[in-house]
Amino acid sequence: MYDLNAPLSAHYTLGQFVVTNQPLSQPNLPTEIAHYDNLVLLADMKERLDQYIGPSNIVSAYRTKELQEALRASGEPTASGKSFHELGRAFDIYPSNMSIADFFGKILASPLRSDFAEIAIKPAQNALHLSINVPGDVREPKVTGLNSQGSYVRLTADEIASYIQPFVENVEAAYEEAKSLVTYNKVPLYAALFLGLAGAFYLIYKQVIKKA
Q: Cα–Cα distances in Å, from 207 out to 77, 151, 194?
């Protein structure tokens, strides 16, 4: 059994990363050592956010599968499939001394953004969802927003730039930063490239047949 008072970092304990008000049949505690190790990394990220971005409060961090399903059943917007929360790699937080938009923008404009796999703003809940990269699974940050239908949608470069702009030199700099954070779905791009090449080869083939 885990000790809820066990320190994960200089200022955070395990208890702060497993808190929930949902009634559960089992305690909301890590089910694997790897999940606990991820929580240590998550606590370190919380320390860095406190230092470089600003203080914030933890709404939810680690979730067992039971807790994740209970939240989904209660209408809480949750990711499809296995959530980073279930791996100890994500938390939902809200800032203590600034607006949620400013907190979001400061993260996106900071070097810390490269340490995240997901950076999502949830305006209706006045919160951010953040998931971290871990050794062996490092991803480009996916920047999204929770819409009124309860779905996470990828933000456009213009939307991202509007959040970043107050924290960089000018509009042009904000847009350049934003373009690097837009995650494109490359499958249609690859499909279009393949079809284009196939078409070109077909035309060449037809010319060769005619000449023959």
A: 56, 50, 20
Q: What is the pLDDT of residue 187?
A: 41
CB 35 within 8 A of CB 62: yes
Helix runs in the chain, H state only: 33-52, 65-73, 100-108, 157-164, 171-181, 186-211
Query: Poorest-confidence range of 39-48, 69-78, 148-157?
Result: 69-78
> Crossing angle for the helix pair 171-181 and 100-108, nearest 10 degrees?
80
Angle (nearest 5°) at CA 104 between 74 and 147: 40
CA distances from 205 to 105, 201, 210 (A): 53, 6, 9
Contacts of 140 (CB under 8 A, 6+ apart): 183
Residue 95 to residue 57: CA distance in whole angstroms: 6
